[in-house]
TrEMBL record:
Protein's organism: Asticcacaulis biprosthecium C19
This protein's UniProt keywords: Membrane, Transmembrane, Transmembrane helix
Gene3D superfamilies for this protein: von Willebrand factor, type A domain
Domain VWFA: 154-405
Keyword Transmembrane helix: yes
Protein known as: von Willebrand factor type A domain protein
Lineage: superkingdom: Bacteria
PROSITE patterns: VWFA (PS50234)
Amino acid sequence: MTTLARRTHRFAGFRRRLGESCRDQSGNVIMIFALSVFVIFGFVGAAIDFSRVDYARRRLQDAADSAVLRAMALKSATDESRGVAADKAFAENFGHPGVYDLNGALKREVNENIISQTYTVHATVSSYFGAFFGKDSYPVTVVSQAKTSLDVFEIAFVLDTTGSMAEANKMPNLKSSVDSAMAGLLQNGKNLSGSKIAVVPFNTQVRLSDATVTTMSSQGLSSGWGNCVHDRDLATSHDVSASAAQKGKAQTLYPLETCDEASLKPVQGLSDNISSARNFIKTLQPGGYTNVTMGVQWGMEVLSPNQPFSDATEFGSTKARKFMIVVTDGDNTKSFTSWSASVIDKRTALACENAKAKGITVYTVKIIQGNSNMLRKCASAPEYFYDLTSANQLNAAMSGIFKSINKTRLSM
């Protein structure tokens, strides 16, 4: 074979092998393209499924939040009742196609002074594209937890027991509303937080128990005789403050005198025995004229660590939160030194300012009659003043006050 023939033969072989190689690469390209499309489709499908699962999870979370907050609102209910209420709230707030096998459960725990309620939901979300990869559904779990701090409260109920409280069913409604509020501080009948309650019935005086009078007299904190007290000294503003009495300083002392009204019940100092306080409320009777200043001043007294009532924490302490709830149904009519409503109103306003300056949160409730402007300013915030047109509104007002006091926070 000539040289030219050999070269021609080798070139033909090279061209044949080149053609075969091109045909092989064309097959590889098709294979690679097919695999790429499958992977891309998988990523797109997974992204769509992920988006659906994430949306379902957020809807589940919102509904679970509603469920646990509904349970927290039922403070005195049984665990079973709270669970039923939580499930109902969840069902009302969740409706999403493609989510099934829903299972929600409420769990309540008390740890020291914290009550926590946890609503856990397990669910299954169907898959649109996961089936291509052997995944036709995704399990989802959401947890919502609400906690309320059982802060130690020191609460003074300053209650008008004047003669006008005998009208328009005021006294029965006052008793029932305060009793319900006190019951709300209990968890399954127990005072888990150790909160304390004081009750200050007032007209133009406050009555003190024999034991309290004896303590005051033995320590030189009082002047005069009797079981009732009228306004402390105006010149030094002791009538509008909780400044401690000092033995030998007449202007600081508590002026004792005979009680004008036999119906007036003695001041109950702070106590964690809420059951006893509830029983005491049932004994209140109306009688006498009105001096709101006396009520507010002795509300400060029972919330003060000073004698004659010394069971309170120091003002400004973080160990307890102090509240005063003033309920009255009339205008100021009489103090020890005046029959002028405007004069007494000014003393009441000063007492309120001093209470708030001490860190006491003041709520005021006016039943039908009274100085709305003064009582609104007396309250720690405008929304803490309740202007009632009927005694039947007392239960709702007291419930609103304690919803304000019991702050709930949601944690995820």
